[in-house]
């Protein structure tokens, strides 16, 4: 195959040993800079994608996809509401619940938290808490026995284990001649769960639905109905359809509403990190400008000879554009390979760093999870690759244009 002479000369300039070693060093720095910038961008976006995916999965292992509740906190005839909801093709399960705040006391330890009354068999179809039980089972919750399932951190803070007693104080008080007395009930710990999300592990407790109704004096009513969908991302659409079907007497929310601030913050952070790291790639790419300007200055005689032999200014421009583009492509491909490789092996690299430093980089109390998840998405990698290549191409335009304007007579005057 016969290559155009511009390609052959441009590649030859890359392979040839230059008289000025400083130019070669600057060129190498430019390639390494592009590679590091691209790799950093891929790793950071992969970590943010993984963090968002992991937290979403953990939230949905405890929180339902859609919730139907009454404005006054009392939803009567929940079975009828569940039947209306299950008419939607995307709804695969429904379960009633009773929500309330409580104060837990055991062995002199006092902690506040959320008390959720559930129907164990139905609840297990809506969320995955049953799959995260460290001890006991959700099915062990029986009406009238006043058993309780605690998050692992809440159990640790209360210093209780299986079979221990926990006293639950509720905000609903009892009026007596001596005044308002808080209502309380003693429960037996029959299960401990861990969903690896500190917010739930440290504050959530579950009791049987009927026990919660008795404790909250709700009678046969419940706080609402929790729904599971075949696709969590369709929750806003299903919410809108159910709100229209149920009318204004019920309030319908989905998991994107209850966690909107968190996911919005993550999305904003991802965009800002993309902009910042793209600027780093841009700085590295435009290092090619100084590299190519020095190459053009170093090759003035060669350019003049080529022009004398009949090479057009556009051909001279192509030679240096090819040289700069190859350097940009090399740095980009090296960065993509290195970034993807690191992102796919973060589960090995981060623990190794932690062992070397002798410290924990992430605390579950602060970051919700205690390790760095990673989710390499093809769309992000493709976008980063295209942006890096475009920046490298733009960086070659000015030096190549300057080379094309070289006058042979001026260049050869002192040769």
From TrEMBL:
Pfam families registered for this protein in UniProt: FtsX, MacB_PCD
Q: What is its main location?
A: membrane
Q: Which UniProt keywords apply?
A: Cell membrane, Lipoprotein, Membrane, Transmembrane, Transmembrane helix, Transport
Task: Give the MacB-like periplasmic core domain ranges.
Answer: 27-244
Q: What highest taxon heads this organism's lineage?
A: Bacteria
| Membrane topology field | Multi-pass membrane protein
Gene Ontology biological-process annotations? lipoprotein localization to outer membrane; lipoprotein transport
Sequence ranges assigned to domain ABC3 transporter permease C-terminal in this UniProt record = 275-408
Entry's Gene Ontology cellular component terms? plasma membrane protein complex
Question: Where would you find this protein in the cell?
Answer: Cell membrane
Per the record, the similarity remark reads: Belongs to the ABC-4 integral membrane protein family. LolC/E subfamily.
Q: What is this protein called?
A: Lipoprotein-releasing ABC transporter permease subunit
Which organism's genome codes for this protein?
Aquitalea aquatica
């Amino acid at each position: 195959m016969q290559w155009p002479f511009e390609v052959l000369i441009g590649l030859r300039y890359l392979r040839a040993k230059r008289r000025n070693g400083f130019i070669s060093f600057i060129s190498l720095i430019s390639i390494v800079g592009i590679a590091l910038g691209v790799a950093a961008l891929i790793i950071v976006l992969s970590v943010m994608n993984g963090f968002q995916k992991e937290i979403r999965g953990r939230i949905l292992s405890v929180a339902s996809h859609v919730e139907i509740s009454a404005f006054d906190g009392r939803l009567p005839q929940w079975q009828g509401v569940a039947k209306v909801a299950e008419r939607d093709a995307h709804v695969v399960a429904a379960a009633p619940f009773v929500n309330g705040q409580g104060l837990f006391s055991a062995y002199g330890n006092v902690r506040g938290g959320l008390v959720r009354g559930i129907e164990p068999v139905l609840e297990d179809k809506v969320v995955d808490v049953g799959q995260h039980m460290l001890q006991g089972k959700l099915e062990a919750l029986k009406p009238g026995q006043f058993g309780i399932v605690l998050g692992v951190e809440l159990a640790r803070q209360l210093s209780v284990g299986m079979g221990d007693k926990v006293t639950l104080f509720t905000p609903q008080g009892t009026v007596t001649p001596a005044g308002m007395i808080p209502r309380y009930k003693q429960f037996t710990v029959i299960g401990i769960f861990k969903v690896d999300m500190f917010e739930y592990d440290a504050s959530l407790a579950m009791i049987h639905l009927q026990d919660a109704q008795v404790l909250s004096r709700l009678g046969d009513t419940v706080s609402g109905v929790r729904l599971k969908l075949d696709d969590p991302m369709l929750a806003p659409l299903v919410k809108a359809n159910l709100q229209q079907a149920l009318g204004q007497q019920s309030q319908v929310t989905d998991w994107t509403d209850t966690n909107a601030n968190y996911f919005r913050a993550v999305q904003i952070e991802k965009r800002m990190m993309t902009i910042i790291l793209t600027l780093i790639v841009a700085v590295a790419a435009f290092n090619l400008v100084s590299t190519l300007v020095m190459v053009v200055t170093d090759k003035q005689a060669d350019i003049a000879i080529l022009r004398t032999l009949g090479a057009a200014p556009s051909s001279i421009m192509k030679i240096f554009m090819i040289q700069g583009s190859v350097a940009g492509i090399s740095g980009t491909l090296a960065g993509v390979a290195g970034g993807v490789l690191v992102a796919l092996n973060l589960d090995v690299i981060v623990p190794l760093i932690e062992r070397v430093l002798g410290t924990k980089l992430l605390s579950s109390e602060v970051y919700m999870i205690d390790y760095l998840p990673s989710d390499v998405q093809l769309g992000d990698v493709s976008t980063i690759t295209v942006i890096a290549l475009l920046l490298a191409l733009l960086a070659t335009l000015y030096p190549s244009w300057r080379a094309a304007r070289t006058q042979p007579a001026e260049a050869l005057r002192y040769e």
